[in-house]
Amino acid sequence: MKAMRHYIGVLLLTFFLISLSGCSKQSDETEMSLQDIAAAVIESQSELPPLKQITSEDEDFAFWITGYYLLPEEKVADGVICFADDMEASEIAVLLLADEKDSKEAEEALAKYIQNRANVYEGYAPEQAALAKNGIAVSNGKYIALLICQEPSAAKTAFLGCFGKKVTDNSAKKAADNKNNTEAKSTSVSASETEVQTEAAASSAYDSEAVLQAWKSGNDSSLSDINRSILEAARDVIDQEIKDDMTDYEKELAIHDWITQWCSFDYSVFGRSASDGFAEGSDTPYGVLIHRSAMCHGYSSAFQLFMDMLNIPCITVFGTPGSNGVEHSWNMVKLDDEWYCVDAAWDDPIGGGGPVHTYFNVTSEYLRKGSIHQWDESSVPEATATEYAYGNH
User: How far apart are CA 267 and CA 88, in angstroms?
Assistant: First the structure.
């Protein structure tokens, strides 16, 4: 009898431990497709911008997995990636790993990707940088989700809630509707990008020395059509904005404010699919002056051209914003034998509004500590003066 009671006790304890273990482990079984899961996560958000979609059937998928998510292609069996276009950082991805043992590695890789995305937006769009920083990666068995959205906790709950459930007709319909909408948007965006690239393709032939020489000589007969259009536009701006009695500081400020008000930042620089990329003219004054859309190199090269035309000592500095390896550029000007840093691209009032002067005539130390600019400091002078900082003069 005593032995029997002991045996029953062992059985009850074993049953209790098994039950306890079962309660603490999230089910990793689901009959929902990856698109259904992604649709459920998207549905959990009260606010999301329009999303483009990539699946394992698309040619860009492998590029995302290896180039952005830094995962070996063979370790991802399937996936769906939904991401916002232009300046938006929102992104929902659901991946199916080939082996559950790789889930920790995948989470770490996606966490690194989240940090890199935040770095890309720093300076250009602080709100989107903050959104990316709050992103999370969560796994369940062989399934893993990347959640960069306004409500990551709700997204995580929705993701985990998809397991142990069968797909419903309603969720399947939502997934299909989302796929149709995102595919339609992707098609229209591709057509738009093609148009922009065709319009500005020749601008890559920008020759700063030739434009400057034509400005000084007054003879533009040897210029290409592209360079002549840049010179004519720059000449018009100077005639309109610059007065003979202006100081170099006043001329610099007038050009800075004109550039940041006239031009809009080229959001395609944030494109992440292999087929995306900024329009060719976006990295030259052509983008600023003619197309009115440019990335950072367009802003800095246009500012450099204007300063050269106005005989204000100026150099262009190339560096990176943070440790993500994305190249960035800005300028330095010399006023009364002192150097100042100017970043017109980061002073662009994205979303509208008046001129911004956060990075106008600041010190190197301000860039070094007040933002995330990084550069080869041995190759350029140190800016220490504050006399001509905005608001001080």
Answer: 9
